[in-house]
Amino acid sequence: MIRFEGVTKRFGKKVVLHQFDLEIPTGSTTAIIGFSGSGKSVALKHIAGLLTPDEGSVSVDGAVVHELDAAALRDLRSRIGYVFQFAALLDSLSVGDNIRLGFRRRDTGPEEIERKLRESLAVVDLTEAIDSFPADLSGGMRKRVGIARAIALDPDYILFDEPTTGLDPVTTATMDHMMLRVRRESGATCVIVSHDMKSVFGVADRIAMLHDGRIRQVGSVEEMRSSDDPVVRDFVAGRTEAFASPGTRGSVA
Ligand SMILES: Nc1ncnc2c1ncn2[C@@H]1O[C@H](COP(=O)(O)OP(=O)(O)OP(=O)(O)O)[C@@H](O)[C@H]1O
Ligand SMILES: [Mg+2]
Questions:
Q1: d(CA 147, CA 98)
Q2: How far is it, in rounded angstroms, from Cα 50 to Cα 44?
Q3: Contact 142, 88 (CB under 8 A)
Q4: Nearest to 33 by CA among 160, 197, 189
Q5: Which of 4, 11, 86, 193, when mutated, tests ligand 1's pocket best, judged by the most ligand atoms within 8 Å of its CB?
Q6: pTM (global) more than 0.85
Q7: How many Cβ atoms sit within 10 Å of the Cβ of residue 135?
Q8: Each residue's pLDDT tens digit, 90-146
């Protein structure tokens, strides 16, 4: 279980998260939705200790992330697969080597690494691309390599940051299918950050909307769909202009 408790995060004078509370139960696929710039990526980064709260805490399975020493933080990160918003592959390495790199601090044997590499590429239907270089892949394929890299390491948690943003509808549908398959085959608890409602409705079993630094509403797909909160309703219906925070208006892709 991941738990945000009273998390406040500022950058200079800008308060991005303000007394933010959220529980992500083990075994769930929880989506965090919200306008561009609302702090979704910032929230996600706290889970892996890439950011530290100014107030409050984030805990994973009871351990407060910002209190972990270096070794414990490494250990936590090894249990988290992070699929970054921009695939973050190393261009000088092949697809296979990008994934092998994740094993460098582990004592996994070479045969086991090759087996996990092939398995994870098969889950995202990219077996053929093992020797390709990132520059030769489409955006959607690069995102799928990012997923393969995360799941190869058998994480307990997978954090997806905007897995479908910038993809065409067909590729988005493929990504949704991949996420469901990853979920089923890995058993990992998934957190998906997205402003793509169609994708979220197809993949998540819980949805939390982040607005003005805190959770506006959290509920099942049905509960969010039938919300009577105007902010949630408009976001869910794709009327994304009406309630955008100052400064984010019009920037929703
Ligand atoms: N390292 C940082 N330093 C300063 N400001 C930051 C930093 N990271 C994020 N911010 C600011 O925090 C706010 C929230 O950013 P964040 O990336 O979490 O938004 P988001 O909800 O993920 O948006 P998008 O949907 O566009 O990805 C933005 O105003 C951003 O400029
Ligand atoms: Mg983001």
A1: 12
A2: 9
A3: no
A4: 197
A5: 11
A6: yes
A7: 9
A8: 999 999 999 999 998 888 999 999 999 999 999 888 999 999 999 999 888 898 899
CA distance 125 to 119: 10
The 8-class DSSP code of residue 166 comes to: T
39 Cα nearest atom in ligand 1: 18
* Contact (CB, 8 A) for 65 and 3: no
Q: Whose structure tokens read 């509920």?
A: 219
Instruction: For strands 63-64 and 14-24, give the pairing.
Output: unpaired
Query: How many residues are given for the chain?
Result: 253
10, 42, 192, 252: residue to mutate for ligand 1 pocket, most atoms within 8 A of CB: 42
Nearest alpha carbon to residue 185 among 81, 47, 59, 60:
81
The helices-and-strands tally (H runs, E runs) of the chain is 9, 10
| Contact in structure between 59 and 65 (CB atoms under 8 Å) | yes
Query: Which domains, ranges and CATH numbers included, belong to the chain?
Result: 26-49+68-236 (3.40.50.300)
d(CA 111, CA 65): 33
Give CA 42 to chain center in angstroms.
Answer: 11
Q: Which of 149, 188, 213 is nearest to 14 (CA)?
A: 213
